[in-house]
Amino acid sequence: MIIYFIILFLVLIVFSILSKKGENNNLSFYLSGFILVIFPAFRSSNVGTDTNNYVGSFQNLKYLQLPIDKTNSSLEIGYLMLEKAAYFISNQYWVLLFLIALLSVGLSLFAIRKMSLNARISIFIYITLGFYLFLFNGARQSIAASFFGISFYFLVKRNLKYYLFWILVGAFFHKTILIMIPFYFILKNEFSIKKLFYYSILSFVALTFLSRFLLLFDEATIDRYSVYEDRGAQGGLLLSLFFIVMTFVLIRFRKYIKTENLAYFNIYLNTCVFSSIIYMVVSLTGSDVNFLRMSLYFSFGYILIWPFILNDVPMFNRLLPRVAFIGIHLVFFGIYLSKMSNLVPYEFNPNLFP
After folding, report:
1. N or C, fewer C-beta in 10 Å, the chain?
2. Can the keyword Ligase be found in this entry's annotation (predicted)?
C-alpha cells in the first residue's frame, strides 16, 4: 500500500516545487501527469479487479481490422479503437494500460487546470477520494468520466452545445455518460434545501424504474446493469456514509462562501449533492454496490469545491482544521486501498523489463 502514498506525496512535492504561489504552472501538470500515467501503465494485470478482463480482450486480438468491426463486441467503438491503436504499437499490454491512463489522467488534469482555484488541492482530492484509482478497474467509464470533466467546464460556462458535444464523445467509451445530458439544466441552478428534497425523491423513483432507463442502452449494457439491479447486494455502507456526511458539511460551509464565488460553488455543491444521493439511494434500497459507479460522473464537484472552502471559510485559516482536512482524506485513501478493487498489493508488470 505504501507505494500509493509515495505516488501521492511525489505528485504533491512536484506541485510544491514547480508551482509558483497563486499559479498553476504547466510544467507541474506535465510532470505530475507523467507520474500518474506511468504508475497504472506499468502495473501487473493482477492489480485491479477488472484489469485482467481488459488485458484478456487485448491479448485476444489476432490481427488489425479497419474500420472497426463492432458486430462481435459489446464494447463501445471508442474503446475498441483505442485497443486497436495500442495493439498496432505493441502486443504488450502495458501499452493499452498506458493509453487508458493517458486519456483518463490527461483529460482530468486538463479540466482541473481550467477550473480549479487551487490545482494542488484539487489533485490531492482527485487521488485521495479514489477518483484517480477508478481507472485501475473501470477503464472505459474512467475515460468517459474524464470527458465529462471537459463537459463540466462548458456547463460552468453555460455553453450547452459544447457540453453535449463532449458528452457524446465520452459515449464512445461508455454509454452511461448519456445519463448526464439533463443535468446541464439541473446542476447550474442555485442550491436550496427544497431542491435537495425534490432531487432525492426523483432519484428514488428513477432507481425504482431502472429497467426503463436501461432501455436507452444496447442489449449488452442492459444485461450488465440489470445484473446489478437483481443482485440486491448491500455493500458500500461506510463509503456511502462518508460522502453523505461530507456533503452535509459542504452545505454547512456554503454560508461562508464569498459572493463572487457563490455561483461556482452552487454548481459544485449541486454536483456533490447528486453524488451523495446516489450513495444514499443505493444504501437505503439495498441495490447493488456497483451502482455507486454512477457517482463517478459527479466527482468533479468534490475536486473543485474544496479550494473555495479552504480559501473562504474562516476556520481553515487555522492550522488544526487544515491538518484535520488532510488527515481525514489520507485515512479515507488508506481504507479505500485496503478494502476496494483489488489494488493492494501493487505489482509491476513482470514482462515490462524481461
Report:
1. C
2. no
